[in-house]
Design brief:
This protein is mostly beta strands. It has nine helices and 87 strands. Strands 3, 4, 5, 8, 9, 10, 11, 13 and 14 form a nine-stranded antiparallel beta sheet that branches. Strands 1, 6, 7, 17, 18, 19, 20 and 23 form an eight-stranded mixed beta sheet that branches. A hairpin with a 5-residue loop joins strand 82 (1141-1148) and strand 83. Residues 1-27, 146-159 and 199-218 have low confidence and may be disordered.
Length: 1219
C-alpha cells in the first residue's frame, strides 16, 4: 500500500524555434499550432491521479473519463501516464509535467503511445482545467506561470506572462471549427478573470514571500551525500547525438566541468565512458545515465524546430534514505543555517530528445549550457531569479559557467569547509503608490506608480464591500504599473497593491475602490435539447434580465444577434450554445444532434425448433451505438447480431431497440415461432459451485449443483469425512485447512465426477460500522436520537467494544460489548446509553470476537424524531470495511422546495483520507465537483449545499453522486433526503457499482393502507458507467410463480439518472404488492434506490427506503423488531431463484427464547409478507424488548428476509433488511 505520494513538475526544454533554449524554455505554440500537432483532443473528468510502479519505474497515472472527443477517437475511460512521482521512499523527480487532480474537468491535448496509453502534448501546455469566474462565466484555464518555465515569443525574446484565459464555450467552438477545417472565431481570450480558485485569504502571517531561487522547489533538501567524504558520482552515456563532434560527449564533459571547477563547493561529477544500459527516468537502475537521441521514447514525439517539442528532460530517480544536514550559512530567508531533514540522491538521469542537432539550431555551446543547467537540477538546485545565472530559466548566452547566484547556492548545498562570506541580505522593495481603479463593465482597471528597483513582482489584493482582503493570482511581473481585473460580479470592491522579492513583501499601497454596476444576467432556454441533423430547429428563448443586445454562438460556426433565434445543425454531434448579453454576461446550454435512425432485423431459420440456433441480424439504419434485444422469454442481449436458442416451444415476440449516443431510440418487433423438438438424452456432466469458496471455521458453506444432462442422483464428499446425497447441501467445517470436495452425479445411462477445493480459515474478528447516529436537535425544533439493536446469531458468546467516531475534533469514545448466544440487546438512546452523550452526532463502530468462530452479529439501527403524534425515522444499515471500495455511488438525492439532502462521510481508519465528490444532475451533467479531506476517526455531515454551493438557489429533482477515495476500505458515505413539509427522512447508503447481472428490490407496492392511506413506490436508477445501459424491469407479484413475468426495458445514457414514479403503475399494475427484479447485460449494473410512501394532507410524504438485494443466502436474520403498545412489525421473504423454497421461520425474544416457529412455501421468483402477529401469534402479546426473526432454507442459496416496524401512532414505517 502506498503510504504517500507526490507529483512533481518536470525540468524540460521546449522550443518552437531552436536558436535559444533553457532548461525550461518554451517558444509558446499558438492555440492553432497546438490543435494541429495534437492527434487527440478530449474533454472529461479526472477520476484519479496517483503514482504507480511500472516495472522498475515510477509513473504518474491519471484516469480520465472522456465525455467529449474533439479530435481523434479516444472515448470512455483512458489512461494518461507521465514519468515521475514518489512512492514511499522511492522517487523519480522531474520538473514540468501537467498536474491532473481527481474531480476536475479538463480539456487535454494528447498523443497515443505504443504502451496503449496517452501522454500530454508539450507537458503542461497541453492541459486546460475548467474553472468558474466570480460572475459564473465558465473558463478553460492554463496557468503559464505554473510550469516553472520562461516563455519566448517567435523571435525568441522572453514573454512577460499575462493571465489571459479562454472562455470555455467559445474556445470549444474554436477547437471544433479548426479540427473540422474551418477558420473559427478567435474571440475567446479574457485577461485577468477573477476565478473562484484565485481568491486566497491574506493575513499578516502569510505576507512573507518565498524567494524564487528555492534550491529545491517544494522546500525539501535533496543532495548527493557521496561528495561529503570525497566521493564522486560517475556518469555514463548511451548512444550518440548526431551532428555534434564526439556525439555529444564533449558537451557533457564541458557541462560537468562548470560545476566541478568551482573549488568553494564539493561537487564531483565524473564522465566514466559509455554504457549499454538504458534505464533512464522511467527505469531506475542505479546508473547515472545520459541517454542521447531518446532511445526509450520517454519524450513524446521528435524535436522539430518548425513544430516545437521537448529538447531534453532531466532529474533524479533514486532516493535511498535520509539524513540530518545543517546549512553552513544563511543564504536567504528560506535557506538558513538550521538543520534540515535531507534526502540522499543516489541516481541522476538526463535524456536528450531525438532530432536535437546543430542543424536544428542548437549549437555546441548552447547544448553545453542547457546540459550544465540540467546537471544543476540533478544536483538538487531549482531556478534563480538572477538573469545572468546559469540556473536562470533561460539560456543567457554566457556559456556553461557558474555566476554569483549559482555559486552561493553551490556553497550552501555542498560546502567545502572553506570560509566564504555569506551574501548580503536582500532588502524589501519600496511600496507602490498612487493606485487608481476605474470600473469598465464587469472589469476594473488598475494603475499605480512603480517605486521599487529590486522587486520580483507585484501582487493585487481585493475585498468585496467591507469584507476581508484576498490575494489574486497569479502574481504580476516586475516593473508592472497596471492590471485589469475582469469578470467581477456586481458590487463595490476595494483594492491595494504590494511589491515583493526574496526578502519579503512591501507595505501596501493606498486603497482604491470601484463599483461594478448592476450586472446583466444572461439566461435562456433551448427546445428541444436533442434532435436530428438537418431536421430539428432548436429554438432559443431569451430569459435574461437587463439585456439590450444578444450575441449567440451555436458551436458549429453559426451565430446570431436576434433575441430569440432558431438554428438547424447540419451534422450530428454535441454542440454548446452560448449567449453573450450586453457583451458582459454569459450563459450556455448543450444540445445533442444525431442522424435519424430506424430499427430493423431479420432472423434465420424461419421455422426453428428447441434444438436450433437462431441467428438474429441487425438491419437498422443510422448512427447506431447500442442494441438491446428482448427475446420474449426473459432473456436479452446487447450484441448487434446475437445467436439464440429457445428451450421451450411457443410464439415469442422479439423486440430490438437501437439507440444513438445521444439517447435517440427506435424499436421494432417480430414474432418467432418455435416448435418443440424431441431431445436426445445427453450424458451427465458434473459441475458445482461453492459459496463462499473461502470461509471461516464453523461458517455455513453452500454447495450448488450445476451439472448438466439431467442427473437423478448426487453423491458429495466434503474432504473431512462427511458426505451428503442432497442436490444442494450446506456443510460446516470444524477445523481450518484446504479440503477437496467431489460431486458424483449419475442417471440411468451415465455418471460424471467434478472436484473443487474449499479453503477454511481460522476465525476472524467481526468489524462493522453504523455510519450515522444522533443525539441532537434538528430543523423545526425536532430532536433526533438513535435506537441500536445487536443480535448474536453465532454458536459462541461474543465480546468486544463499541467505538464512537465523532465529528468536529471531539474525542473517540469506547465501551465494552458482550453478547450471549442468540441474545439481542437494544439501546433505545444509543449515544446517551453507551457513551453518556447528551448531545452529539457521529458513527458507531462495532468490533467483536469469539473463542473459535467469527461472531455472527446482526445489527439494525433507527434514527428518529418524535412528532406531534408518534415518531418518524429512518433505518441506517451497518456496513463492513469490504463494502467501502475506492469508488462509491449514491442516487435518489434531491434539492428543491419539497426535499433537502444532507451528505455524511465517515473515516474509521487511523489516517486522514482524501476524497473527490462529483455531483450529477438527471441529464448526466456534472453540477459540481469538490475535494474533501476526512480526518482520521472522523464523522462529518453537512447539507448538500455546503459541499456543492452550485446547488444553492437552484432546483434539482434528481441528483446522483460519485465518491472517489484515495484509500480503499476507509470512507463510508451516505445521503439523508428529508421532506421539507413533514421532516420525514430517508437514508441512502453509498455503495459500489453492483456486479453480476441482476438485483432485487424486495418490496414495492401500490395498495391502500389503514386509515384511508394509499401506498406507492418510486424507484431511481443511476448509470455510473461510460456507455449506455439497457435495464430490464420485472414485477414479481406477491405469492406467485413469477418465472414468466413480463419484462419492461429502460435505457439509461451514461451518468444519467432516471426516476420511475409509482413504479408499479408504470409497469401496468393498478393495485398490488411484490418485489422488483432489475437485470442488465453490462459488466456492472445501475445504482438503485427505492422509496415506498404515503402522502400527507399538506402534500408531504411519510415513507421508508428499501435497499436493493444483490446476494441471497440460506440464512437471514432480522433483529430490532417490535411488538408493544407503540409499534407493530411486518416480516417478508423473497425467493431470488427459479425453484421452490421451503423456509423455516423462527421468532426469538431478546433473551434468545423461541416464541414461535413456522414453515413457509416460497414460489420461484416470489415475495410474501405477513404481519408478525399473523405468522407468530405470540407476537400479539405486548412485551418489552425487541424481537429477532431467523429465516433458513435448505438447498439453493436464494433466500432473503426482511422486517418493517410501524409506529402505531404516526403510521411511519422503517425497513430492516436481513443479514
Amino acid at each position: 500500500m502506498f503510504k504517500h505520494f507526490r507529483v512533481y513538475w518536470p525540468t524540460c526544454v521546449l522550443l518552437l524555434l531552436a536558436s535559444v533554449a533553457s532548461a525550461t524554455t518554451i517558444v509558446l505554440p499558438t492555440d492553432d499550432q497546438l490543435i494541429r500537432k495534437s492527434p487527440v483532443i478530449v474533454e472529461g473528468v479526472v477520476i484519479s491521479s496517483a503514482p504507480v510502479l511500472r516495472g522498475a519505474g515510477i509513473w504518474t497515472e491519471t484516469k480520465l473519463a472522456v465525455d467529449r472527443t474533439l479530435k481523434g477517437d479516444a472515448a470512455g475511460e483512458i489512461t494518461i501516464r507521465e514519468v515521475g512521482g514518489q512512492i514511499d521512499d522511492r522517487i523519480t523527480k522531474v520538473f514540468g509535467s501537467p498536474v491532473y487532480q481527481a474531480g476536475e474537468r479538463v480539456m487535454a491535448f494528447l498523443t497515443p503511445t505504443t504502451r496503449g496509453d496517452y501522454q500530454t502534448i508539450d507537458l503542461f501546455v497541453g492541459k486546460f482545467s475548467e474553472e468558474r469566474a466570480a460572475n459564473g462565466r465558465r473558463f478553460l484555464v492554463r496557468d503559464d506561470n505554473a510550469g516553472d518555465v520562461l516563455l519566448l515569443d517567435a523571435s525568441l525574446q522572453p514573454i512577460e506572462t499575462k493571465n489571459v484565459q479562454r472562455d470555455a464555450t467559445a474556445f470549444e467552438s474554436y477547437v471544433t471549427d479548426r479540427v473540422a477545417g474551418h477558420d473559427g472565431m478567435k474571440d475567446y481570450g479574457v485577461a485577468n478573470p477573477v476565478l473562484e480558485r484565485d481568491v486566497t485569504t491574506s493575513s499578516i502571517n502569510n505576507r512573507v514571500i518565498r524567494p524564487q531561487f528555492t534550491l529545491i522547489q517544494e522546500g525539501t533538501v535533496y543532495r548527493w551525500s557521496a561528495f561529503d567524504n570525497g566521493g564522486n558520482a560517475k556518469w555514463y552515456s548511451n548512444g550518440t547525438q548526431p551532428g555534434y563532434s564526439g556525439g555529444g560527449v564533449n558537451e557533457i564533459q564541458t557541462a560537468m566541468n562548470a560545476w566541478n571547477s568551482y573549488a568553494a563547493a564539493k561537487i564531483n561529477y565524473t564522465y566514466s565512458g559509455t554504457t549499454t544500459t538504458t534505464g533512464g527516468l522511467s527505469g531506475p537502475n542505479g546508473v547515472n545515465e545520459i541517454l542521447f537521441n531518446d532511445p526509450k521514447g520517454e519524450i513524446s514525439g521528435s524535436f522539430n524546430p518548425s513544430t516545437g517539442g521537448i529538447v531534453g528532460e532531466g532529474g533524479f530517480n533514486g532516493v535511498s534514505g535520509s539524513m540530518n544536514w545543517t546549512g553552513p550559512f544563511t543564504a536567504d530567508a528560506t535557506h538558513t543555517s538550521q538543520t534540515y531533514h535531507a534526502f540522499i540522491i543516489t541516481e541522476g538521469n538526463l535524456t536528450i530528445q531525438d532530432g536535437v542537432s546543430p542543424n536544428a539550431g542548437l549549437s555546441s555551446n548552447t547544448l553545453a549550457e542547457i546540459v550544465a543547467h540540467e546537471f544543476g537540477h540533478t544536483l538538487g538546485f531549482g531556478h534563480s531569479t538572477d538573469s545572468t545565472a546559469l540556473m536562470y530559466p533561460s539560456v543567457t548566452g554566457l556559456g556553461p559557467s557558474l555566476r554569483s547566484d549559482d555559486q552561493v547556492a553551490a556553497r550552501w548545498l555542498y560546502p567545502s569547509g572553506v570560509a566564504v562570506p555569506p551574501p548580503p541580505p536582500a532588502t524589501t522593495p519600496a511600496a507602490p503608490t498612487g493606485l487608481v481603479v476605474t470600473p469598465s463593465g464587469s472589469n476594473a482597471n488598475l494603475q499605480w506608480n512603480d517605486n521599487a528597483t529590486n522587486e520580483t513582482g507585484y501582487r493585487v489584493y481585493l475585498a468585496s464591500g467591507s469584507g476581508a482582503f484576498s490575494r489574486l493570482s497569479p502574481d504580476l511581473a516586475a516593473g508592472s504599473r497596471a492590471a485589469t481585473v475582469s469578470s467581477l460580479a456586481a458590487g463595490t470592491y476595494r483594492f491595494y497593491v504590494t511589491a515583493f522579492n526574496s526578502a519579503g513583501e512591501s507595505a501596501q499601497s493606498n486603497t482604491a475602490s470601484a463599483t461594478i454596476a448592476t450586472s446583466v444576467s444572461a439566461s435562456f432556454v433551448v427546445s428541444p435539447s436533442a434532435g436530428v441533423a438537418g431536421v430539428t430547429a432548436f429554438i432559443c428563448t431569451d430569459t435574461s434580465t437587463g439585456a439590450t443586445s444578444w450575441s449567440w454562438n451555436f458551436g458549429d460556426g453559426g451565430t446570431s444577434t436576434l433575441q430569440n433565434p432558431a438554428h438547424v445543425y447540419n451534422a450530428p454531434g454535441t454542440y454548446t450554445i452560448q449567449l453573450t448579453a450586453n457583451g458582459q454576461s454569459f450563459a450556455s446550454h448543450v444540445v445533442s444532434v444525431s442522424s435519424g435512425i430506424a430499427s430493423d432485423f431479420t432472423f434465420s431459420p424461419s421455422n426453428p425448433t428447441t434444438q436450433t440456433n437462431i441467428n438474429f441480424s441487425d438491419r437498422s439504419s443510422g448512427n447506431i451505438t447500442s442494441w438491446f434485444w428482448n427475446f420474449g422469454d426473459g432473456t436479452s442481449s446487447t450484441s448487434p447480431s446475437p445467436v439464440k436458442r429457445y428451450t421451450s416451444g411457443g410464439n415469442y415476440s422479439v423486440t430490438l431497440t437501437v439507440s444513438t449516443s445521444t439517447g435517440q431510440q427506435s424499436a421494432i418487433s417480430h414474432t418467432v415461432s418455435v416448435t418443440t423438438a424431441t431431445p436426445a438424452a445427453p450424458p451427465v456432466s458434473a459441475a458445482f459451485a461453492i459459496s463462499p469458496s473461502t470461509a471461516a471455521v464453523r461458517a455455513n458453506v453452500a454447495f450448488t449443483d450445476q451439472s448438466t444432462g439431467s442427473p437423478t442422483s448426487w453423491q458429495w464428499s466434503f474432504g473431512d469425512g462427511s458426505t451428503s446425497n442432497a442436490q444442494n447441501p450446506t456443510h460446516v467445517y470444524t477445523i481450518q485447512g484446504s479440503f477437496g470436495v467431489s460431486l458424483t452425479v449419475s442417471n440411468a445411462t451415465s455418471s460424471s465426477t467434478a472436484s473443487h477445493v474449499v479453503t477454511i480459515l481460522p476465525p476472524t474478528a467481526y468489524r462493522s460500522l453504523v455510519p450515522a447516529a444522533a443525539q441532537t436537535n434538528g430543523v423545526g425544533g425536532s430532536v433526533w436520537r438513535t435506537e441500536l439493536t445487536l443480535f448474536n446469531g453465532g454458536t459462541e458468546p461474543a465480546s468486544g467494544q463499541f467505538t464512537f467516531i465523532p465529528g468536529g475534533g471531539a474525542p473517540v469514545l469506547t465501551r465494552s460489548l458482550f453478547l450471549g448466544v442468540n441474545q439481542s440487546i437494544t439501546y433505545a438512546n444509543a449515544l446517551n446509553d453507551l457513551f453518556g452523550l447528551s448531545n452529539g452526532a457521529g458513527a458507531i463502530a462495532i468490533e467483536a470476537s469469539s473463542a473459535t468462530t467469527t461472531p455472527a452479529i446482526r445489527i439494525t439501527s433507527r434514527t428518529f424524531t418524535t412528532g406531534s403524534v408518534g415518531t418518524y425515522g429512518q433505518s441506517v444499515p451497518n456496513v463492513s470495511s469490504d463494502d467501502l471500495t475506492s469508488t462509491l455511488l449514491l442516487t435518489g438525492l434531491e434539492s428543491d422546495a419539497n426535499f433537502r439532502t444532507n451528505i455524511g462521510l465517515v473515516n474509521r481508519t487511523a489516517l486522514p483520507v482524501n476524497a473527490g465528490l462529483t455531483l450529477y444532475d438527471a441529464n448526466g451533467n456534472v453540477v459540481a465537483t469538490t475535494s474533501v479531506t476526512v480526518p482520521e476517526n472522523n464523522f462529518q455531515q453537512s447539507s448538500l449545499g455546503s459541499f456543492f454551493p452550485a446547488v444553492n438557489g437552484r432546483t434539482f429533482a434528481a441528483l446522483s453522486m460519485r465518491v472517489d477515495s484515495a484509500t480503499p476500505n476507509a470512507v463510508s458515505a451516505y445521503g439523508s433526503v428529508i421532506d421539507n413539509r413533514t421532516q420525514d427522512p430517508v437514508y441512502v447508503q453509498a455503495i459500489p457499482a453492483p456486479k453480476g447481472s441482476e438485483l432485487t428490490v424486495p418490496a414495492i407496492g401500490r395498495a391502500p393502507g389503514v386509515n384511508g392511506t394509499f401506498w406507492r413506490s418510486d424507484v431511481t436508477l443511476f448509470n455510473p458507467g461510460l456507455t449506455t445501459m439497457n435495464v430490464a424491469l420485472r414485477y414479481l407479484a406477491a405469492g406467485q410463480d413469477n418465472r414468466g413475468a413480463a419484462s419492461h426495458n429502460v435505457t439509461i445514457a451514461p451518468s444519467r439518472t432516471v426516476v420511475i414514479a409509482d413504479v408499479a403503475q408504470s409497469l401496468g399494475i393498478s393495485s398490488g404488492t411484490g418485489a422488483l427484479q432489475v437485470s442488465w447485460t453490462t459488466a456492472s449494473g445501475p445504482i438503485v434506490t427505492s422509496r415506498t410512501y404515503i402522502t400527507a394532507d399538506n402534500g408531504g410524504t411519510y415513507g421508508q427506503s428499501i435497499d436493493p438485494v444483490t446476494t441471497f443466502g440460506n440464512d437471514s436474520f432480522v433483529p430490532g423488531l417490535r411488538s408493544d403498545s407503540s409499534f407493530r412489525s411486518n416480516v417478508g421473504f423473497v425467493n431470488g431463484g427459479d425453484t421452490q423454497l421451503t423456509v423455516t421461520a423462527t421468532l426469538l425474544s431478546d433473551t434468545g427464547a423461541v416464541l414461535g416457529t413456522t414453515q413457509i412455501g416460497l414460489s420461484p421468483r416470489s415475495q410474501v409478507q405477513y404481519a408478525a402477529g399473523a405468522l407468530f401469534p405470540a407476537a400479539n402479546t405486548p412485551r418489552f424488548g425487541t424481537l429477532t426473526l431467523l429465516a433458513h432454507c435448505d438447498g439453493p442459496s436464494n433466500l432473503f428476509a426482511y422486517g418493517s416496524i410501524v409506529d402505531n401512532a404516526s403510521g411511519d414505517p422503517v425497513f430492516f433488511g436481513g443479514r
